[in-house]
Amino acid sequence: MKKGVIEKNIINGPYDDVNHYVKIHFSLLKEDFEEPLRASVMFYKKQKALMSETLKNIDIKVYKGVTVSFNKSKKKSFYYVNFLNPFQFSGVDWNTSKNFMHGSLVLLSNDNFNKLYLAIVEDRYALEKGKSWIRVNFLIESPPCSKRNIFVMLECKNFFEPYYQVLTALLNLSVKNFPMYKYIISSETSKKLPAYVNRETVYKICGHNIQICNPNDWPVAEKLRLNDSQLQAIQTALTSEFSLIQGPPGTGKTYTCLMIIDILLNNINFCKMPHPNPILIVCFKNHALDQILGSLLKKNVKVLRIVPGIKPLLKAINERWHSLERLQKEINKYNSLMSHLDERSGIVSFAVLSKGLTNLSQNQQTWLRNNFINWLFCDISSQTDINKVIELCSQTREDIKAGKLSVVQNPPVSKNGSTFEILQICDTFENDSVMKQLSYSSIFILSLNDLEITMNVLRESIYFKCRNKLNVDFISDVENELKLFNDCRIVYLTLKERINTRASNVLLIKNNKLDDLNSLNVIQRWRLYQYWVKELRRYYQRRANSFQREYEDDKVMFDELGNVKKAIKIERFGAQVIGATTTSAARCQHLLTLLKPKIGNLEKAAELLEAHAVVSLSKHCQHVILIGDHQQLRPSTASYRLETDFNLGVSLFERMIKNGLHAPMLTVQHRMRPEISALITPSIYSKLDNHATVCNLPDVMGIVKNVYFIDHNNFENEMDVSKMNIHECDLLLNLCKYLLQQGYDASEITILATYLAQKTYMLSARERLGLPTEITITSVDNFQGEENRIILLSLVRCNEDNKVGFLSVENRICVALSRAKEGLYVAGNMPSLIANSKVWAQINQKETIDPVDECTKELQKLALLDYTEGDSTGGESENFDLPKCNEPCGIKLKCGHTCKKKCHVNEDPLHDNYVCHEICGLKNITCPLKHKCKKECYQQCGECVHPCKKLLSCGHSVKRECHISVKDIEQNYKCLEICNKKLRCGHCCIDLCSEPCGLCKEMVIMNGCGHKILVKCGAPLSACNHSCDKLLQCGHKCKGKCSNQCDNGIYLFSCYCKELCKATLGCGHRCTGTCGESHLCKQKCRFKCRHGKCMARCSDPCMAKCGVKCARKCSHFRCKRKCWEQCDTKCLKDCPLLLPCGHPCQGYCGYKCPPVCTQCDK
């Protein structure tokens, strides 16, 4: 860390070349980080014996007693810094702490920093979880890893990550990839069109087609929802390759920026493609970037926010997700177990109970583990086999789980059967008509639900065996099952009676012996059991709470990391806008090069160090727009010497203005009332007009004027490197308290301090005075870009030498005086300010500022009205008596109503003792329907008594008080509405809803046959005596009764038809029988040969067979078979016959002659 040679930043004129530019800014930025660190290390080396608390005002934090360890995995190696005293972090709030952030620089040494080891912090996750180590990555050389080597570690307060990323990005710049060379290096100020724009380019803006390079083609500002200065700024931005826009406080810089982006997105082709060249937006702070990107997201613009370290974060997202899933399962498990315990529906097994036992010895627990159930049911007869009951219930439960067994409702019992007496025994147990769901909880060894199901299974089995008498020994089987049924019933009734016994620890701790358990009576045993269950539930609750806390912590982390994952998804759909801080843009410089953003927009550019601005742009940029205000805060540097002597505090925005580049200024402010804006016009800004809306802002309540300078002569207090003024602190805090009494909300008041020590003291004093934490107390520098209704400003400086430090700097004066919208109250010493600054001299001449004005004196007294701290460095406070006021108070109370008493500013000004008798009117938080409470406001809302309709389980509704549950209503109420439930037949039940649905009473046409016989739908069917007359399959009409099943019934045959058949049978004869009879031919058989005829009936097979030799023969061949047998061979000689035409037949002798001659075709 040796001091290098550095050159001044060139703010007027060009640089020699890119190397010259990089050399200057690299050395300045590097020295800006190293200079305070170097001074702090040298100070520590000289003061080695100093305690850590004496080092709190230097730029390092000291941690003594650390070791370094090394861990190597398959993918990566890690170094860990272990703290020997982890209790030093016990009070750290890691949600807000900046210690050991990712990217922080730490220095380790074990020889008083003669030799240094530099490391970058990778993560502090272990410290956040209460462990004693952080993970680091050593830059150059790693130290020896041993528990014997104990180091001192210094952490730099200046965050190293931005410096490291920007310095690395600077080294990557060259002539080939340097953005906007002719403006940044050569300092050219001539106006040139962007590369993608020509003189004829037309944009569509707010419905108007405008040739943007023609000033005369632009409509008036009002048609584009702009003022004249905003219109001029947008014209310049759209038509200049490198443009600046200056925006004083409240003039709408962000609105103008969003308008420009909207115009570009809607008109430029490369912004509208599926995978566009995105517009790049860069800010120094995350807060400013989030405001712009949030507004774009509301307009459905696809936005990608670049975040450094995407891969590690995605891994972290995955780890957090699995952790959340695991924790949620554990929480659900313990909540489910507690729910089962609260139902009191069974006996918890002793193996589960033992987790929460605290009043039993080891011997007692061992004995109970084997005898728990028998010990608890000690009064049940020995004939009742309770272990068999438990075994049977367990087996039933397992069979139902496996789907081997199903449970039905009680089967009907016929009173005429011989087994009625046996089944009647089972009916002495009252079963519910609807079976409860099977309990799968593993915590119960025996439950009421399991016993009910088991008894139903036994009853069904007994019924089945009695009806079917499966074997000769069925009576013996039934008797065994009846005994089991009776045992189950006894256990069930006993358990149901004692399951709700009051819990009590009946064991004496002093005489806690094994005999004590057996000496307890039945009631005492059940009370002790319920006490153990209660202890078990507390154990489950503790476990659930522990997992819940861990889940909430991981959920916060997961939500933060989830934003990165969403951004990556947006990139895949084609981001139109890329947003990044300067650090992220520098780190992801290679990614920006690949994405090729052609348009770069640097918001709040006057706050960016020039090196930060330049590395945020890529070589593909064709259009750069810088929006900011160099007359407000400059870039923040760690070294005041470099800021002032080497021009490091001059931004690129300010440098280009100094070199003559035109920067149109927004001149209409929409924030401050005219009295406030007059403080900075023309003392800082030559012109700043007030919009009409700020002229009608309400006056500050309870104070005559809206702008005051409270002058005082109370000296400041020296606090090492910072300063504070106790008088101003107490003055402004009590003024804040008074404003709260006037009805202002705490979030509407902001207290600004110009020094860090003043801010710290005010934060502690705010708690001492009991002021709400919602009141923002911060430094002026941190409130840049913010605003509030009322600002209380503490200038701090007041001393004998009239020194005011940076209060004479115009930029800080501008920011400090331009944050208020409605009221600004400044405490300070005006003579000191006037002596050191011309700006303060001009401000003092304003009509709104009169330090000796009577109202100012009264305000100072009023602010000190409740001051109870006695004296301060500036003197004692005066007593101030307010005149009595007879006006109604009218202050808005916390409940939302207004105070009805007369003004009581001297008595109970905060309304701590006021009792509000107005009707509450708030939504009752205990009411799920959020009805408004009708009690008086001071009373507890309690249970909601608003009458409302309650939907019963039957589907009907009844009016009852809101807090009464449906379950409670149905216990004592019988629904008198008509049931209207659909029966199986499809009709609606017309009985009362509270009564069981009986038989259907609707009158219907019986059987749907079409004959008008009306009967009740649920009554047994009557026989229809009408003729059927339906067509049968045979085609004849049915002659039977309609009640006989024919065409529409189960049977569909023609055998019932008595008509004559007359059908032609297969043999050729006509059927002579009826249609319903069998169709057998009764005529004589037609079969005959030359030797005789068949004498049998046609339907019978021919029994007589002709035994004469077959008469078939020709001149070549004779058949040798009998007449009734089929000839198996035919003559294949030429046919000797002549055809009718006279030609010889060309066929075979054994076959018929062909009908056509092959010779003459006749």
From TrEMBL:
Cellular component GO terms, alphabetical: nuclear RNA-directed RNA polymerase complex
Pfam annotation, one family: AAA_12
One of the protein's GO biological processes: regulatory ncRNA-mediated heterochromatin formation
InterPro entries cross-referenced by the UniProt entry: DNA2/NAM7-like, DNA2/NAM7-like_C, DNA2/NAM7_AAA_11, P-loop_NTPase, SF1_C_Upf1, Znf_NFX1, ZNFX1
Molecular function per GO: helicase activity; zinc ion binding
Gene3D superfamilies in the cross-refs: P-loop containing nucleotide triphosphate hydrolases (3.40.50.300)
Domain NF-X1-type, first and last residues per copy: 895-918, 954-981, 1034-1057, 1067-1087, 1141-1159
Name used for this protein in its record: NF-X1-type domain-containing protein
